[in-house]
Amino acid sequence: MSVAVENSKVNECSDEWSFAGHRSIDSYTHGYHRYPAKFIPQIVSKLIETYATEDCLIVDPFAGCGTTLVEAKSHGYRSIGFDVNPVAEMITKSKITTIAPGSHQNLLEIIQEWFSNYNEEEKYYISDHPRLNYWFCPEQKNKIGYLKKCIEEVDNKELETFLKVGLSNILKTSSRWLQDSTKPQIDPKKQIKDPFNLFEYQIKKMWKKNMEFHSYLSKKNRLDIQSEIHLRDARDTGLENDSVDLVITSPPYATSYEYADIHQLSGYVFNFFSDLREFRKKFIGTFYSEKIEAEINCLLASDTVSQLAVKNKKIAKEIENYFISMQQVIQEIHRILKPGATCCMVVGDSKLREVTIPTSDILISLMREESFYLEKRITRNISLKQIPTTRHPISGRFTSPSELNSVKVYPKEHILIFKKR
Ligand SMILES: C[S@@+](CC[C@H](N)C(=O)[O-])C[C@H]1O[C@@H](n2cnc3c(N)ncnc32)[C@H](O)[C@@H]1O
């Protein structure tokens, strides 16, 4: 019997969760930086309003660009996030640490001064990474090196991170990277924009949002609420047993985004990693994840892997690896949650090589194995979340809808609400 049928009494398919016409997805500091598959804040907000208890500690083991943490702080709750991606860590840090408006009133003047002191005859160093010359034309590369140098000379850590996030978000537009593509791909005909213009626009936008969020938190007396992001694996958070009240998370999808590849420009510019191959292995849900030898405690997962193995053994192994890794994450979530506490997961099912990957049903089974029970399953139509909805039929990677034979994925997503027994 499928998990979906068995649980029909807890299923809910409601427009209430589609959030059409609700507040912008760029409210507060949410819009600082692009990030693939980020939550829409409205989901997190509604989950917090429904499941947070007094003086609650909220944890997101796959924090990404920090949507859960920003929403937790805006609602007045303590939160801790984890991610293996240093770009995610940098973005989140900046989004949860607002800067007091009075402290840098002349920020835009400072930036203007940087621009006027730029000497195009001088060479500004970024790093020795050979891929920098592949992605950037000399003029833009030099200006980015200059901005990086100026930012590193700022003697305030919070402001430095804020400006780095701004620079990070303009790297793709300043490079030969095919615009709006999540695949690392050059656009030979691209009209590349001026990094200084892009940076100025970006910082103005971010500063306005920083001020709005700062003033909101200040009015509510929430500026000093604990909010932490750690560069750490979701399978080993280091938190104490039975210490967390609420988990709100969206795990990586099975073999979809290559976060390491997508964020490589920021990685090279800020020296987050030198070896892309090694870096990729840390991520769950990618083709390059570290292979783990373990059993999956779920018949549905084993069946899915067997169906895939008939089509392609390598992809089958990736999917098996994904579910084994998720099993380990679930064990960690169980360890850190207090008895009776809630875990909310937002997940999408997908299709690879004509085989449906029922990720939501498999995660429900794995959660049950770990003594969670499913309280509710809400299925929502994706209306605002900006994720590609088509995959390449062979590789399974995200692709443009115009690509021949591309396959539609994640038209819906599931919000799964579990309780720890
Ligand atoms: C779907 S995204 C989460 C997006 C997030 N909800 C947001 O709003 O930005 C999944 C995240 O899992 C992270 N990730 C992948 N493997 C991980 C691991 N082993 N431990 C912690 N985070 C990991 C990725 O870097 C990515 O940021």
Judged by helices, strands and strand pairing, the structural class is alpha/beta
Mean pLDDT: 89
Radius of gyration using CA atoms only: 22 Å
CATH superfamily of the largest domain: Vaccinia Virus protein VP39
The total of beta strands comes to: 12
CATH class of the largest domain: Alpha Beta
The neighbouring-strand order within the major sheet is: 1-9-12-6-5-2-3-4
Helix fraction? 25-40%
Structural domains: how many: 2
SSE arrangement, N to C: HEHEHEHHHHHHEEHHHHHEEEHEEEE
Strand content: 15-25%
Morphology call: globular
First-last Cα distance:
23 Å
The set of bound ligands, ions and cofactors reads:
S-adenosylmethionine
| Number of separate helices | 15
CATH topology of the largest domain: Rossmann fold
What is the CATH architecture annotation of the largest domain?
3-Layer(aba) Sandwich
Q: Which consecutive residue ranges, at least 5 long each, have pLDDT under 50? A: 1-6
Major beta-sheet overview: 8 strands, mixed
Can you tell me about this structure?
This protein has helices at residues 3-6, 41-51, 67-75, 86-96, 107-116, 131-135, 138-152, 157-170, 195-219, 259-262, 264-269, 276-280, 299-311, 313-336, 359-369; strands spanning 11-13, 57-60, 78-83, 227-231, 244-249, 337-347, 350-352, 355-357, 372-381, 390-391, 407-408, 412-420. The chain is an alpha/beta fold and 421 residues long. It folds into two domains: 1-86 and 228-258 and 277-421, 3-Layer(aba) Sandwich (Rossmann fold); 99-222, no CATH class. Strands 1-9-12-6-5-2-3-4 form an eight-stranded mixed beta sheet, with helices on both faces. A two-stranded antiparallel sheet has the order 7-8. Helix 4 crosses helix 8 and helix 5 packs antiparallel against helix 9 (195-219). The protein is globular.
